[in-house]
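# step 3/5: fold
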Amino acid sequence: MAVISLKNKKQKASLVLAELKALYPEIVRHLKANNPWELLIATILSAQCTDARVNQVTPFLFERWKTPSKMGKADLTELEKSIYSLGFYLNKAKNIQECSRLLESNFNSQVPKTLEELITLPGVGRKTASVVLWNAYGINAGIAIDTHVARISWRLGLTSSQEPIKAERELMLILPQKEWGVYNHRMVSFGRDVCTARSPKCLKCSMQNFCVKNGVV
């Protein structure tokens, strides 16, 4: 695989951003939430699960436990049953309950506005923190590297690896910080519609002229 200079990667990144904006001019919020706390809980639950499935569960969840305080005091078995269909429900139930407790005790029941504080909460890593900060507060503190962002950035030749930490570090060097949040959102939509994991629609892709097609057979 040919080595691409940082300057050329920045130029390609500009092309990618322009194409994504043309394809998805409106930002679609994939997880339904009414406030930062609901968004945080929904994002934790979305790990290794589809957003659509999470959106089926959270209306009941937030109607039953309306605040961090109430979720923190919930019966754990009942909480587990309410999210059973999302997979990994035992760990997720513990995480969202302990997360809610810590929000109440350490942050006055408010979702913090820094990545450093967010990642101290159970079930919250850099990806979750970045998603929450941008969607809830419009803060670009990092680039959320989910499966779509990792796969497509590598296919395009913007990154040398699909490993989240390395991919994020490389993307932060070539994408303007103001674009970090929208990059994730638009890449998720693009990954679902065009650049799918299996059988990507390369012939219909507006980026085919400058995509190196890493990993595409």
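# step 4/5: annotate
The domain at 6-26+143-210 is CATH 1.10.1670.10 (Endonuclease Iii, domain 2).
# step 5/5: archive (pending)
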